[in-house]
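F.,

This is the one I mentioned.
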């Protein structure tokens, strides 16, 4: 499963196939439920697309059973399901055109401005806070042109975002492995965009997996630039799988660095579980949450 195709499916409203019932998730979970409760010094979440073979109802059951209450990358059509389960939409989506057609290209500004104007109101009325956006691919544009185009487009919506209390968050991707030609592929470019926009309602979604591939130096980058980061995603490197001892990032230290900055937002798990069974995939999420629960 690739995130690009998963998000595309969510944008056109295609529901995932229900493979197991919520009750079976609960039964499987009870077999390995950890004895200790979460400290919740960090606000935990999980990205919807990584468990897209399950219905959202099923994922809500598992999330509550583990002990946290947020799911990332949910659009307006499914917010009622989250509210039914008392779960926050920690990063809303649905206003974007795609990951590759973004604010760095003026030909998309009219559509994006319309979409984001509508979604900012929807997010605000629903009581949520964060709305994702993307730079788009370079398509031959240099960094400065991309910055100027993003500034021009984003300024058309930021006054409304500020008024409604919604934070627009541009995600950092790597262009080396997963998102070839993506423009916002390094923290320096994204931070420069934040500085030029100079709005408390524009931040970067700092994806730890992507930035490890693009530039490394994760902890120091967070320590020095945390004021520009409004949200975090996780995954193991290499492979984008579980954040365990099979990969090169040590997440307890990263979480401690984030917590030390005074960060009050969400950290969302975005790894692709490798397990073949329901129980394996449930345990992978539970283990990841506990690893990050410093």
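My design for it:
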């Amino acid at each position: 499963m690739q995130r690009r195709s998963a998000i595309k499916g969510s944008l056109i409203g295609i529901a995932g196939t229900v493979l197991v019932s919520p009750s079976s998730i609960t039964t499987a979970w009870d077999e390995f439920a950890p004895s200790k409760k979460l400290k919740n010094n960090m606000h935990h979440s999980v990205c919807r697309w990584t468990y897209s073979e399950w219905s959202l109802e099923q994922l809500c059951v598992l999330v509550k059973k583990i002990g946290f209450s947020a799911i990332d990358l949910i659009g307006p059509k499914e917010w009622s399901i989250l509210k039914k389960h008392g779960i926050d939409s920690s990063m809303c989506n649905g206003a974007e055109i795609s990951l590759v057609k973004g604010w760095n290209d003026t030909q998309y500004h009219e559509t994006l401005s319309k979409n984001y104007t509508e979604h900012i109101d929807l997010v605000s009325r629903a009581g949520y806070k964060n709305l994702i956006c993307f730079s788009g691919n370079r398509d031959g544009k240099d960094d400065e042109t991309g910055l100027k185009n993003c500034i021009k487009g984003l300024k058309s919506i930021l006054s409304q975002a500020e008024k409604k209390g919604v934070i627009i968050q541009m995600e950092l991707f790597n262009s080396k492995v997963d998102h070839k030609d993506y423009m916002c592929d390094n923290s320096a470019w994204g931070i420069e965009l934040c500085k030029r926009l100079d709005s408390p309602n524009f931040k970067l979604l700092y994806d730890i997996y992507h930035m490890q591939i693009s530039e490394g130096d994760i902890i120091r980058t967070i320590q020095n630039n945390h004021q520009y980061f409004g949200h975090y995603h996780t995954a193991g490197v290499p492979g984008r799988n579980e954040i365990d001892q099979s990969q090169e990032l040590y997440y307890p230290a990263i979480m401690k660095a984030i917590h030390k900055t005074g960060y009050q937002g969400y950290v969302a798990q975005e790894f692709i579980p490798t397990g073949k069974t329901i129980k394996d995939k449930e345990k992978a999420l539970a283990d990841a949450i506990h690893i990050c629960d410093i």
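Confidence is low (pLDDT under 50) at residues 7-35.

Talk soon.
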